[in-house]
UniProtKB/TrEMBL annotation:
InterPro entries assigned to the protein according to its UniProt record, in alphabetical order: Tcm_partner
UniProt protein name: Three-Cys-motif partner protein TcmP
Length: 308
């Protein structure tokens, strides 16, 4: 029997954490975004992007307990794969597509739960062996749809038109801290990540991802980042009465704040009547004190941050 009292996943899936409403909302955002990403880049351009890499940097065990419905809730790794397949099917293209999924977690029990429990429960057990697997859809085009498909090809390429589409999938499971993974994997990023890549980063704490890693990802051609930044701890330090020198150095080193948070803290002590509105991306909301952190990385390629 699956229990939901744990904060972490057991290797056999017998103990899994409850899922919070905001985590369910994040998963739904991931699903919709990835499905439309495939539809847009693969399905709508003339030739279409045919190589994708999806990296879940803090993947967890892949399944939760939903107390609202008293049933299991699939985690982000499963939902990423399902969203890719939905977008692939909706695209209705005859081009084959290659997708590499990379699931990273520093806790081996989490990866064991993902591979041995969550994937089989979701009907994806064949993907845990690390090999390439083919997911095929047979297409039944009307005459009009056949003409539309033919129009996407040059005259010399029409002979390759077929009535099925193949999705080649491969999963990698990496037992490592995400920061250590970035240092080892990104040295050959131009060769390793071909096509389009999406990084989903939902760490347990702000200190698990440095701005250096964000920049390294941002330097990969065709990369995107969805980064969930939980700021409760940061708010306690910025607006709290107690803070240690070591904590300040840690914030400034990892987040590369360069005194920014000290200035915000000082600004908080100024009467509101003396604060003039500013059109600045790094700003504190006056109602609920939410912070959007956009460090000075590559300004051409934005980082999507979910403020929870």
């Amino acid at each position: 029997m699956i229990t939901s009292s744990a904060k972490w996943w057991s290797a056999d899936g017998s103990s899994i954490p409850d899922i919070d409403p905001h985590t369910k909302a994040k998963h739904q955002i991931y699903e919709e975004y990835i499905e439309n990403l495939i539809l847009t880049l693969y399905g709508k351009s003339r030739h279409g992007e045919t190589t994708f890499t999806f990296v879940d940097g803090f993947c967890g065990g892949g399944v939760y307990y939903d107390t609202e419905n008293n049933q299991s809730w699939l985690g982000s790794p499963i939902r990423i794969i399902q969203a890719v397949r939905k977008g692939f099917q909706k695209a209705n293209r005859t081009l084959d597509i290659n997708v590499n999924y990379i699931f990273i977690d520093k806790n081996k029990h989490h990866l064991d739960c993902l591979k041995n429990h969550a994937f089989p429960c979701a009907g994806l057990g064949e993907l845990v062996d690390g090999k390439v697997h083919k997911f095929t859809i047979n297409l039944d085009f009307s005459l009009e749809e056949q003409d539309q498909q033919l129009s996407l090809f040059d005259d010399l390429d029409k002979k390759v038109l077929k009535h099925s589409q193949n999705l080649f999938e491969q999963c990698e499971f990496i037992n490592l801290e995400f920061e250590k993974y970035t240092q080892s994997a990104f040295s050959n990023s131009n060769n390793f990540y071909r096509g389009h890549s999406l990084f989903i980063l939902d760490p347990f704490s702000w200190e698990h991802i440095s701005m250096q890693s964000i920049r390294m990802i941002n330097d990969i051609k065709g990369s995107e980042i969805i980064y969930t930044y939980m700021i409760n701890e940061l708010k306690r330090w910025v607006f709290g009465k107690k803070s240690s020198l070591s904590t300040r150095k840690k914030y400034n080193t990892i987040l590369e704040a360069e005194g920014y948070y000290e200035s915000i803290r000082a600004r908080r002590s100024v009467p509101k009547s003396r604060i003039k509105p500013r059109n600045v991306s790094r700003e504190i909301g006056s109602d609920n004190w939410q912070m959007e952190l956009n460090p000075l990385i590559n300004p051409i390629k934005p980082v999507l941050t979910l403020k929870m």
